[in-house]
Fold this protein.
Amino acid sequence: MTTPVSSIRKSPSIVTPLAQPSFLNSVGAMWWRNLKVWMAHFWPSMTGSFAQPLLFLFAFGFGLGAVIDQMGNTSYLVYVLPGIVANAVFFQASFEGSISAFSRFHLQKTYNAILAAPVSLFEILVAEAVWAATKALVSGIAVLIVGLAIGAIPHPMMVIAVIPYIFLCCLSFATFSLFIMAYAKGYEFFSYFFTFWVTPAFLFCGVFFEVDRFPEWVQYIAWSIPMTQMIHVIRPMLIAPETLELSTATLYTVYVVVFGVVSLWLPHRQLSKRLFDK
């Protein structure tokens, strides 16, 4: 007797595992996700990103510039502008990589949700660093545009050359901020970060005057913060490119890169414990 086809039980379908996306696709998707969230609060965010560094530029560039007419053979406004650019990107990358990233990790549980997909923690951290560096670069470009408009950049074409270097430094700043975020248990923890890292960078890393004006022990602290190396590269690039020695710029760049790579490894190790060793 022939069994009707309709009565034959169909074999269960074979579940195909999700394809592993490429590293760039994963990082790009998370970067795009952060961009869409940021665009929903575009104007308040842009106001903060643009207004603060521009206020610093005009307050110190024109205010102190009226008292300190020259720094060597350079007007104070021209001298201070690269420092304001560096401080703008340093602060923005530090904020986005610490407080904003902590909100996504701790409050919104975004990391837990993303890890349910075939995405690794390392890819999440790289995406966070790239996103923080992107936001920071926007702030830096805003200051550079104003600097071009007011004639505070003697070599305008060097702006194109300096932007990739600024982005590299932003990545280093962002990864260190992620390292701090990985150890934070609450928002209060970041008061230590901004008091003992961000503020000293603003005051001692050469934003407003040369680092060698400080006592020797303060200089050691300043040179341990990669914003000092950044300023000592982009300032001559924008003011007098011929004075920048290739060996010195290479040494500073290596320090910035090593600092950023080590800073990326540390939060990965700590967050792995917090997320998976429970």
About this structure: The CA atoms of residues 16 and 261 lie 36 Å apart. Residues 43-276 form one domain. Confidence is low (pLDDT under 50) at residues 5-16. The chain has one domain: 43-276.
